[in-house]
C-alpha cells in the first residue's frame, strides 16, 4: 500500500477516537497536508507527507511514515508517524 485515505490514516494513527470524527475534522478545514488545507476526507496521503492537525487546544504536526490495514493499539499507532513537534 503506497497511499491511504486521509480520514482513515488519522483514525489509524489515533489522532481521533472515531473515523467519523476524523472525516468531520477534515471537512471542517482543521487539517493541512503539506501546508495546504484539505477538505476532502478521501484525499490520499502518501509516505513523506506532513499532516498538520488543529485539535481543541493544540496543533499536531505529523510526518506520515507508514500505513496500517487495521486500527491497533497506541503502540501500533505510534509507528505510523513521526511527530515533528518533538524535534524542537
UniProtKB/TrEMBL annotation:
Pfam families: S4 (PF01479). Residues 4-67 form the RNA-binding S4 domain. GO terms for molecular function: RNA binding. PROSITE patterns: S4. Keywords: RNA-binding. The keyword Plastid does not apply. This is RNA-binding S4 domain-containing protein. It comes from Bradyrhizobium sediminis.
